[in-house]
Amino acid sequence: MNKPDILLISDPGYEGSSLIFNLASQLSTNIVWIASEPPALLNSIVKSYNFRGKLSIATPKQWKGYNFVNLMNLNEVSIAISKAGENMKGFTLIISIIPELLLIHGLEKTYLFMLNTIWKIQNQGGQTLALITKDAQSRRDEIVMSRPFSVVFYLEKKIEENTWKRNLIVDLPYVSKEVVPLKVDGFKVEIPDVALEAIDNLKRV
């Protein structure tokens, strides 16, 4: 394993989408994003990082400049990933449509789809980063869908003293469980060093 696959389970809000994109941009200059977020939000997130690599986005919403993905057919989702990644070698895949796929296709089909997708992306020299919105599905579904990933992070968001507080939870076998505050500037979410260190350690496995 030299490119660990990563899952982020995030409380609702733009922070999870922003953090997963920032993480992908640190790992690769070629990114394919299969996204369910509103296109205007995607644009704001991408612009906030001044990303200069290759980025191809597919969304179920028809939007100028984006590819289209039909969530009703898992084969078409696979085709959309391949089409978006044309002329990109070893690209990093961001997939943030898992809650929608669970709703439409159920746990078994979505789980098998993700297993196959992760395997295919790895064989192409890439890696998969996924985002699940907490409580958009059952806790059982979250646990099962986390199994194919070698790294799982949790983003918690809550109000304290009339201010949003965001924490990233890193809980891996070779490090103690750590809760790290996240720094947010507009649509930009900083990646804590402990998260990058955890990923770097897995690259050496």
Topology, number of strands: 11
Average residue-wise pLDDT: 91
Largest sheet: 9 strands, mixed
CATH A-level architecture: 3-Layer(aba) Sandwich
CATH H-level homologous superfamily name: P-loop containing nucleotide triphosphate hydrolases
Rounded to an integer, what's the Rg over CA atoms? Answer: 16 Å
The amount of beta strand, in percent, is 25-35%
Structural class: alpha/beta
What's the CATH first level?
A: Alpha Beta
Summarize the structure in words.
With 205 residues, the protein is of the alpha/beta class. The chain has one domain (6-203): Rossmann fold. The protein is 40% helix and 27% strand. The chain is built from 6 helices and 11 strands. The strands form 2 sheets. Strands 4-3-2-5-6-1-7-8-9 form a 9-stranded mixed sheet, with helices on both faces. Helix 4 links the parallel strand 5 and strand 6. Helix 1 (14-27) packs across helix 2. The longest helix is centred in the middle third of the chain and has 26 residues, at 98-123. It is globular and about 45 Å long.
Keywords:
205 residues, alpha/beta, Rossmann fold, two-stranded antiparallel ribbon, 11 strands, globular
